[in-house]
Amino acid sequence: MRTVTLEGRGAFDEWRDAARALLGDGVAPEQVRWQLAGQGGDLFGAATASDLTARSCEISVSKSFVEAAEAAICHSDSERFSLLYRILWRLQHERSLLQVTSDADVAQLTRLIKNVRRDSHKMKAFVRFREVDAVQAGRRRFVAWFEPEHFIVSRTAGFFQRRFTDMDWLIATPKGSAAWNGQALKTSREPAARPEAEDETDELWRTYFANIFNPARVKIRAMQSEMPKKYWKNMPEASLIPDLIAGAERRVAEMAAREARQPPAFHERLQAQWRGREEDGSSVDLPPLERLRQEAAGCTRCPLHCHATQTVFGEGPVVAEIMFVGEQPGDTEDLAGRPFIGPAGQVFDEAVAAAGIDRSQVYVTNAVKHFKYERRGKRRIHMRPDAGEVAHCRWWVSKEIEIIRPRIVVALGATAYLSLRGESRPIAEVRGMPIPLQDNRMLLVTTHPSAILRMPDPDLKARSLEAFRSDLLGVRRLFDTLPAL
Ligand code: URA
Questions:
Q1: In testing the pocket of ligand 1, which one of 445, 450, 453 has its CB within 8 Å of the most ligand atoms?
Q2: Domain assignment of residue 319, yes or no
């Protein structure tokens, strides 16, 4: 019997070198005992992987086996090394073994890979960064603590590097760590200590979660399978779940009892058209933005004004460096006459604040100024404005830009992009890269917060929210790099 001790906590390269050497010596799988360094047992006569490598030989295996082995070796099952060696051994004579899904070894391999993928997926969705006070070399620093089931940190670190490339971060776990400083990604399989940090991001997650929680659609089983309880302890928002579930029934009853909200009568909207005008219809002497707002209040350029409560014009200081353009007002905005104050507005507000942008200092408007919807019973359901409606409203948006003179314009979603550029493009193609506009203005494109709210898959939703927040951090960064006027 040969005992092989893996010293590098079972890293793939070490197993591969040892396996190659054993295969070269013709050692059958049942003759090998695999163990990790420090796992006790009878070490007398045990070879370390590096002893074996000296006698290694060239062995060819398919790319699909290498990929499968790289994934399966991240599993915490102590039998993984021997399983992989047994499959490698068999592959020398059974070339199509991996296609035999009913084979017990192959089935076990598939199970390990599936578990590893799931764990990695959960890590991407449930890692919660917290900001550490000290800024280093002008970069903000974040730490996160996560408890994976398997050794997936190195494997999953690339995702975080791509997604959070413009901040420094450390993800510490009991099964290794990963750190990024803008230059290099360092990973380790050594257990890391839990970093101590709590910041206002925790509160942000809680507010966000409380917002997207729909009491009328609670499916506790599905929710716990998507967000298994074992992850809760490291997720700030999870502390809300028991209370939200307990109060769900009452909230649904309250929602049902609430009266349908009635928009004001049509004649009030027509009167708005004449507000701010002299008897003869000429405009009174108002500042340009105010005049524009009043003119827009009576806009009848497209049929959307017939069913909307009122024009929802932009809001913010008369001269602002950053302007955000959304799609169109939602139900809440239509009734209140103000942009981004409903559920999407809350997601927007939180992400803006997290990026260190003061909403009161930016101008917020929409590509289309009237709410387009369809009635379903008492509810008014959002409908996306079509290209014609966007084209009619472009005039107002261009006037707002002319008056506000922002240096950065942020398009929230595809409709805003269409309005600002006069062409349609998939958001993924234009997202995150500054696009020059007229008058030295920069356009940045990101997703629309309502699109995030509508996502049914909680993992995807959480990832999209992170991406949205990271885009707004990008806006903030771009703003910080602009020379002062
Ligand atoms: N969605 C938008 O695009 N704008 C709003 O004002 C609200 C929701």
A1: 450
A2: yes
Do 296 and 232 have their domain in common? no
Same domain? 177 vs 252: no
Q: What average pLDDT does this structure show over 133-150?
A: 81
Q: Is 326 in the pocket of ligand 1 (CB under 6 A)?
A: yes
- Report the alpha-carbon distance of residue 225 to residue 11 in Å, rounded: 30
Check residue 454 and give its pLDDT.
93
More reliable by pLDDT, 416 or 56: 416
**Distance from Cα 473 to the centre of ligand 1, integer Å:** 20
Same domain, 137 and 118: no
Domain closes at, from 122, 137, 153: 122
Are 347 and 433 in the same domain?
yes
Q: Is the CB of 341 under 6 A from ligand 1?
A: no
Which residue has better confidence, 417 or 280?
Answer: 417
Q: pLDDT tens digits for 237-288? A: 777 888 888 887 787 777 777 655 555 556 565 565 555 555 565 656 688 9
From the CA of 339, give the closest atom in ligand 1: 6
Beta pairing class for 176-180 and 373-376: unpaired
| Cα(237) to centroid(ligand 1), Å | 25
Q: Is the CB of 316 under 6 A from ligand 1?
A: no
Task: Please say whether the beta carbons of 247 and 271 come within 8 A.
Answer: no
CA–CA distance, 51 with 132 (Å, rounded to integer): 44
At 349-358, the pLDDT tens digits run 999 999 999 9
Mean pLDDT calculated for residue range 361-367: 97
328 C-beta closer than 6 A to ligand 1: yes
Q: Which value, in Å, is the radius of gyration of the alpha carbons in the chain?
A: 29
At 198, is the pLDDT very low, low, confident or very high (cuts 50, 70, 90)?
A: low
Rounded distance between C-alpha atoms, residue 302 and residue 359, angstroms: 30
pLDDT tens string 161-192: 988 887 889 999 999 999 998 899 999 988 99
